[in-house]
Design goal:
The complex is a heterotetramer, with two copies of chain A (248 residues) and two copies of chain B (517 residues).
Chain A lengths: L16 E8 L5 H13 L3 E12 L2 E9 L21 H12 L3 E7 L7 H7 L16 E5 L6 H10 L4 E5 L7 H15 L7 E5 L5 H6 L4 E3 L5 H18 L2
Chain B lengths: L6 H23 L1 E3 H10 L12 H7 L3 H4 L3 H12 L3 H9 L13 H32 L7 E6 L4 H13 L4 E4 L27 H18 L4 E5 L5 H10 L4 E3 L4 H6 L3 H18 L2 E3 L3 H6 L2 H21 L7 E2 L1 E3 L9 H15 L6 E3 L9 H17 L4 E3 L12 H17 L3 H4 E3 L4 H23 L1 H6 L19 E3 L7 H8 L5
Parallel strand pairs in B: 2-3, 2-10, 3-4, 4-5, 5-6, 6-7, 8-9, 9-10
Antiparallel strand pairs in B: 1-12
Helix pairs in contact in B: 1-12, 1-14, 1-19, 2-3, 2-10, 3-6, 5-7, 8-9, 10-12, 14-19, 15-16, 15-19, 16-17
Classes of the chains: A alpha/beta (248), B alpha/beta (517).
Bound molecules: cobalamin (2 copies) and pyridoxal-5'-phosphate (PLP) (2 copies).
Chain lengths: 248, 517, 248, 517
């Protein structure tokens, strides 16, 4: 593999082969098959084979296409967007906070906006945790507040101010029509407006969150699908420790 | 294909469900809610919004002094009708605009007020009855395909795209279409108005949206020669009002659970118990089949562990439905295929649970929910898990079959996702059509023992709930691992005690009507 | 729908949404997820969501991606590449040949090269036919020769010359490494070289054949998956009738 | 889970298979073929190619005068060894280059010739035995997972890409890897040489390619802690030679059918019968499991109709295998899941057929083939059909399970296709692991009646074949709807009658060796 030009692999290195499927809003016919083929050609693919084309409803046709992309990606240039590396154990994280921060870290989490999907944020916060990995409530050095679901940014910010929260964990699972971005943005802006942003470690998460997206939104980090509580705990412990050192 | 289950244990569960519901029924009988009263207004013909978009039923009720409210809005509103000679819409508009106030009608005689209100309610219920008859006639003329009835959701947020999606799904074999609500609607203490095109994760439930979908489905039903059913969601702060709208617009099913709002939306339990009862009386009358929400227990906690809680909840939901006058054939008890797909012999456990429900509630049209929790971005694996679900459903003869989507973990369904999902169900259910007739489970085998364990577990759970009372049991995290206090949660302020002279002509009419199959 | 700019349909007109899946020859990690995303962005897609990314073997990662294409296709401009339109019935086709060609049409079919997939060509030629649609052997006005499988272009051309064949039906099912194109091309060139091309109606078929591809290879027509014998019979009858008229 | 089958009918089928094979065995005993003789040379150590790429075994045999050939190549070649004192390779090279001719060795004494040849053959068979022992030891040390053993194919055309693909598949759970041959190889009357990178629809079977794959799989077996098996294809014009190569390079399975070449490749039937017998004697000795090709009947004709022919062919294949000294545990009889997926209750028919084979051949490791014919470009549907196949396989306890590919109708598998396919099988077989232990089929139900019908149909078919003789029956389109004449087809010129003094030391050695389990 040439890291500077990685291409999809079908059955031969660099063949660029991939699968796709899509619907066209047109009646099915041989012409629709050809339309599908031309469309994929326009996207820049080579060797376009329409493996399946058929009517799925009046005015709609469905296609399965195999084709080859000439594109390649330089993976050596991909920065470490990863936040989920080399987790500390629970004891290590607690120890780090105890030694450096020298007080409990106050964490508030919520599923914001009208989103009611609490399973994800619960997985991170609750004692039980996720996949056998304990949640933040179990750590000695965290004081956690799980506000639950459907919490407006206003409510969360008010809570953070009133309870002198150090870390905010905001979750978004529903992403339709960009509602996640809108809510995350609102929260960030509100914290700024209230002059709290500096003081608070602001993290977000959810199945569609990436660290890249989170940092672009001005968050300190973002955690995606499959996150383990210990990954979040480690990140918080390290950052809080850094901040404590900076403030000395 | 029958599992050996102890009929004594089943009978005991029914008895316990009765004992659990009894004190709650007493509470219900002594209370009303703002949503119940707004429903009465809606049945009187109050609909529309004020110039600042407040729904008229809310605007009218908000102007009703608390003292009068305790007697029921019907009397006060009836007095207004009698006093002014206006029709319901005219009167409601005038009240909403502040042109008239309720104190103006205080002199109206009780009988005049009652008869004015009764006339309106009768007209409203007449429309409901007509819708029911239209449905019966349509089902006769355009018979559905045999169950499992394939049920899919549309949820683009835009009612017009939803309509396109629903028609396409019907052509691809769907027999039931549910329009999923926008996130957060269930927490609104009013029902939005008009056709809507902007929802998140779903489309607002409004009466006009109901109409748009019903018309489109009637049209495609005609074309396909089979009646396609329409479903929406009742549970939430407006449970009774949505029941009215659904009854008027001839929806065929409604999501309606006696505890869902409490457990999963933190809606006050007293509010929910009163609302569910009134809405179910209406459902009974309108011939709507309810879908309960036991599947939700399985999305938040482990499906193997939660199985007894699911069954216990089914008994409770059934009991409350019976108490509201619903027939077995209207009680779509919820169940779901949510066991970890990577558990060895998971399919055997699923078969046990599905067959157990089938045998315990032989006449209820169970609503069988697909795998959701364990679905991931791997659409290929997801499609297979759905196939095993489809197989379990046809083998255990489920009736209302909510089709799983291969993109469950990714987005609300695309048009093609729904088609692939329907094709999955149709393929599997056809190739395995009579498998359930062909096989017997081994006596004392994994499947049978599992079913017996779950049944015993449910009985034990119900015993403990009966002992403590339902409200305390909920407070003590008996269901779905959440605790709710009797006076906490949303919408509690909308619950009030009925005055001794409380009058509700809708309730009276519904209690009088014998339910016709 | 605007026929001049048809785009894939996810759940909203013109959203351009489509699904794809592919393998990258690299170890799985968060960086691989990002590589997948960047690659799809490079292909020109918008709103790229990597729904699934995971290790499938040492050095290989698999991805499921949803994304939106800005591309659209002008379907009004798609010519009638269709050859499979308005079939004649068996009687009509026979009658057309009887009246216009005034003799039986001699058809030879084979699965050429080393390809041994006879089911497709048999479906077109044999009495039994395909999906309840009778094959060419059943027509009065065709004299058919089914040479079977693994017939080299040389053999087929020799046969065509020796037996004064009017129509050649060449089938190719195996397409790996372009073997179908190679064989079809060889057959066409050989017929040219032998001076038979003019005289013979040259058709090809197979699951990956399109009429467009066939005409590009210099064939008179090409028939893809799901072809019915009557569609082929109709095409032959009409073309032979035209030729008969031209030769008058 | 047992179907009620008449043991009398099964016994009758075995008897008929014996009667059918008997006259063919007589024919076999009296004949040899060029491929058999080349195999003897290969076992003597003749390998490599001439300067113009003719494999040495072919080059040597081509120079052997017909009269000598009838006595068996071993004697003539042995004479050359004795005469020249060269080793096998040296002698073969010299003969191929025309530096030596067979007439030079005519004076060599019979015993000298025989002992020289025998020494070589013994060395060759010694290598085979060692390979067998290595396999036994590896299986002991690196036990496989319990069946169904997941089997996938690699077929890129390039042995090095195939190796990558095979290792990846093993990591994804494959327990058996088959390298599919390039189209047309089975019609070549020689075996290509060396590592190859250009095949169509498959990769050439060469001894070096075998080595490359075996080494890669040994390495990954070690890493995974479970032995991964390697398979290739014998049937074709070089059936016995490939059996030699496979035995030497420790392949674990071989596609080897007593009639496949005749029916599906138009290879002469006499040639095939002789070749299959010799190759199977070698397979028996080398501990290789054969895979027969009954699945092929179902890809060209209707699977419901062809079921009796499949069963009849299984009886015949079993009989021929026994006659070559194979044990039941080595006879992987073919079967397939090829019923139209859109047939109502198709799954029930598939269960019937799979369970029937399981009960009729209780000790044979059936090779269960996936749906191929009804697979289309709709990979989503295809994945589901494969899932039902996987379910049927685990429920009826098949042993060798060839995994279906969702892209079956499109291309030879991509690396990820194979992974998705293995995940499909692993998911379904795990979630339904003990389903077969849990269920019973209804007496006299659809499944049982179907199995009984197929069994009776097979018996009737075997009766009619026994009456007419196998060769005539084949001519009369009894199998797969094709007719082949005894003296037609490819490779007939390579069959010859044995002279009275025909001598074949390999055959002798193999017949002497008791097979060790
Ligand atoms: C369970 C579930 C529900 C339950 C929720 C119960 C509850 N209390 O949470 C119920 C049934 C109530 C529900 C309802 C709805 N749901 Co829902 N639901 C799901 C489901 C099946 C699983 C979600 C889940 O629990 N995943 C498991 C957790 C552990 O994973 P996770 O959320 O990704 O969390 C992990 C990481 O992301 C991360 N993480 C998450 N948050 C955070 C936060 C921080 C700070 C950090 C560090 C990490 C982190 O850590 C977690 C552990 O690794 C998904 C489909 C699916 N299979 O994904 C649909 C899904 C999320 N739901 C969906 C929808 C649309 C709804 C509804 C809006 C439908 C409706 N109109 O009725 C409703 C409304 C709810 C509302 N108001 O929000 C859609 C969202 C579509 C989209 N992309 O916009 C999905 C994808 C289904 C679908 N295909 O339509 N749902
Ligand atoms: C049946 C089958 C076989 C049978 C063939 C039996 C026979 N006598 O035909 C057997 C088991 C022998 C076989 C063997 C092999 N097969 Co095969 N086989 C298939 C299978 C399952 C079905 C093909 C089929 O019968 N389709 C049904 C017919 C009716 O459809 P059709 O061919 O498309 O024909 C229609 C149209 O295309 C059209 N048509 C076709 N030809 C023509 C010609 C004309 C002139 C016209 C007008 C129309 C026309 O009309 C027909 C009716 O609509 C496919 C997978 C699949 N599901 O498609 C693989 C497949 C075709 N096989 C494949 C391969 C690789 C092989 C082998 C090479 C594997 C091997 N190395 O052992 C061998 C070798 C055979 C050889 N030398 O060619 C690959 C080809 C991959 C590729 N794209 O290159 C496939 C796609 C499987 C796979 N995914 O690997 N195969
Ligand atoms: C019984 C019941 N009611 C209502 C809903 C939906 O409610 P909401 O709109 O609050 O998400 C569900 C969701 O699954 C349900 O099961
Ligand atoms: C028993 C048997 N042998 C051989 C083959 C393959 O032979 P060929 O290489 O001729 O395609 C098959 C194909 O399925 C088979 O079933």
């Amino acid at each position: 593999m040439n890291a500077a030009a990685v291409k999809p692999y079908g059955d031969t290195l660099n063949d660029g082969a991939m699968q796709m499927s899509f619907t066209l809003p047109m009646e099915f016919s041989e012409a629709a098959n050809e339309a599908a083929r031309q469309l994929v050609v326009k996207m820049g693919f080579k060797d376009v084979a329409v493996a399946e084309g058929r009517a799925i409803a009046d005015g709609f046709s469905f296609f399965v296409v195999y084709a080859k992309t000439p594109q390649a990606v330089d993976v050596s240039a991909i920065g470490a967007h990863a936040v989920r590396e080399s987790s500390l154990s629970m004891d290590e994280a607690d120890a780090l906070i105890r030694e450096r921060v020298k007080r409990k870290v106050r964490v508030a989490g919520a599923c914001i906006g009208t989103d009611a999907h609490t399973v994800g944020i619960d997985a991170i916060l609750s004692m039980k945790g996720y996949k056998g990995n304990y949640g933040l409530e179990r750590y000695h050095e965290f004081e956690t507040f799980n506000l639950g679901s459907q919490i407006s940014p206003e409510e969360l910010v008010r809570f953070a101010r009133d309870k002198a929260i150090d870390v905010i964990l905001a979750s978004q699972v529903v992403t339709q029509k960009g509602s996640d971005i809108a809510n995350f943005t609102a929260l960030g802006e509100l914290l700024e407006a209230e002059g709290l942003r500096e003081r608070i470690l602001l993290l977000c998460g959810g199945p569609r969150v990436t660290n890249l997206m989170a940092t672009e939104l001005g968050y300190d980090a973002g955690f995606g699908r499959g996150t383990l509580p210990s990954e979040v705990a480690s990140f918080i412990a390290r950052r809080m420790a850094e901040r404590a050192r900076a403030n000395v | 294909m029958k599992l050996e289950l102890d009929p004594g244990v089943i009978a005991r569960c029914c008895e316990l469900a009765g004992a659990i519901a009894e004190p709650v029924s007493d509470f219900i009988a002594a209370h009303s809610t703002v949503a119940v009263e707004r429903s009465v207004l809606r049945l009187c013909g109050v609909d529309g919004v004020t110039s600042d978009d407040v729904p008229l039923p809310n605007a009218v009720l908000d102007r009703l002094p608390a003292a009068l409210r305790e007697g029921g809005v019907a009397r006060a509103f009836g007095a207004g009708l009698a006093h002014t000679g206006l029709d319901s819409l005219g009167l409601a508009g005038a009240i909403a605009r502040g042109e008239l106030t309720f104190d103006l009608f205080s002199a109206v005689r009780e009988t005049a007020a009652r008869s004015a209100a009764t006339a309106q309610v009768t007209r409203g219920l007449e429309r409901v009855r007509a819708a029911r008859e239209t449905r019966a006639e349509a089902l006769e003329r355009l018979p559905q395909e045999p169950p499992p009835l394939l049920y899919v959701i549309v949820a683009s947020g835009n009612i017009y795209e939803d309509r396109t999606a629903a028609v396409a799904a019907a052509q691809a074999g769907a027999q039931i279409i549910a329009v999923i609500r926008s996130t957060g609607q269930s927490l609104l203490d009013f029902v939005p108005f008009g056709a809507t095109t902007e929802g998140f994760g779903g489309t607002y439930a409004t009466q006009e949206n109901f109409q748009i979908m019903r018309a489109a489905l009637d049209e495609v039903s005609q074309r396909l020669g089979r009646y396609v059913m329409l479903t929406n969601y009742a549970s939430g702060l407006c449970m009774p009002e949505i029941a009215v709208m659904a009854a008027l617009e001839r929806l065929d099913m409604l999501l309606n659970d006696s505890m869902y709002g409490i457990l999963f939306r933190d809606i006050n339990m007293k509010r929910t118990f009163v609302d569910q009862h009134f809405s179910r009386m209406l459902n009974a009358y309108s011939g709507i089949i309810i879908n309960t929400g036991e599947d939700n227990y399985l999305t938040t906690a482990d499906a193997v562990e939660q199985a007894p809680a699911v069954l216990a909840s089914q008994f409770i939901n059934e009991e409350f439905a019976h108490r509201a006058g619903m027939e077995d054939a209207q009680i779509g008890l919820g169940d779901a295929y949510e066991i970890d797909p990577d558990l060895t012999d998971g399919l055997l456990f699923q078969l046990a649970q599905a067959q157990l429900a089938r045998q315990v509630f032989p006449k209820a049209p169970l609503k069988y929910m697909p795998p959701t929790k364990h679905m991931t971005g791997d659409i290929f694996k997801g499609h297979l898990i759905d196939a095993m679900f489809n197989l379990t459903s046809v083998t255990t003869r489920q009736q209302i079959h909510l089709c799983g989507m291969l993109t469950e973990a990714i987005h609300t369904p695309f048009l093609a996702d729904r088609v692939l999902s329907l094709e999955n169900a149709r393929y599997v259910m056809n190739t395995a059509r009579h498998l359930g007739d062909e096989i017997e489970f081994k006596r004392g085998g994994i499947v049978e023992r599992r079913a017996q364990d779950v049944l015993r577990g449910a009985a034990a759970l119900l015993e403990s709930v009966a002992e403590r009372g339902l409200m305390r049991a909920i407070e003590e995290r008996t269901f779905a691992d959440v605790s709710r206090s009797p006076d906490g949660g949303r919408g509690f302020e909308g619950v009030f005690e009925r005055a001794p002279d409380y009058w509700n002509p809708v309730e009276e009419a519904l209690q009088r009507q014998p339910v016709t199959a």
